[in-house]
Amino acid sequence: MYYYPLHPPYFLLLVGFLTALTSGIALSGTLKVIVQKWPSDRIENTKPRSSLKQLIVPFLGITGGICLFLSSGLGIFGFPALLALGVGLPVSLLTCLLLWVQLGSMLEFAERRGMQALDLDSLS
After folding, report:
1. Whole-angstrom Cα distance, residue 74 to residue 56?
2. Which residues of the chain fall short of a pLDDT of 50?
3. How far apart are CA 83 and CA 51, in angstroms?
4. Closest by alpha carbon to 19, among 54, 62, 58?
5. Cα 34 from Cα 41, distance rounded (Å)
6. CA 66 to CA 120: how far, in whole Å?
């Protein structure tokens, strides 16, 4: 016998998507503000890790939204709720953790060498 959910979590899918989207917009705005403040901060000689503290709340919003979106999407395709959460939570947390580490290293690299060092089009 096949298992079909009586009420697929379409609303939770939409909530997860909108949460991740709005948190992504907030993260983008915060990153722009941080990068614009770099010339004045170099005089004060602040640590690069202090800018990551400002990004943690929007990034946690993205992580939660992605987790909800992925788990709800699996629920729509017929996975039981515990299995969908058991798959969606580790996948989204691991992906977001790796992205957080990459974002931190890219910010440090751009702060040390400048934004021109990240321009890959100028190499060719």
Report:
1. 27
2. none
3. 37
4. 62
5. 10
6. 29
pLDDT at residue 91, rounded to an integer: 96
Instruction: Report the b/e string of 39-53 with b at 16+ CB within 10 A.
Output: eebeeeeeeeeebbe
Q: What is the pLDDT of residues 82-94, one digit of tens each?
A: 999 999 999 999 9
| Predicted pLDDT of residue 16 | 97
To which residue do tokens 């990240």 refer?
A: 118
Phi and psi for 80 in degrees, rounded to 5?
A: -65, 155
Cα–Cα distances in angstroms (integers) from residue 53 to residues 50, 76, 92, 115, 123, in the given order: 6, 35, 21, 21, 32
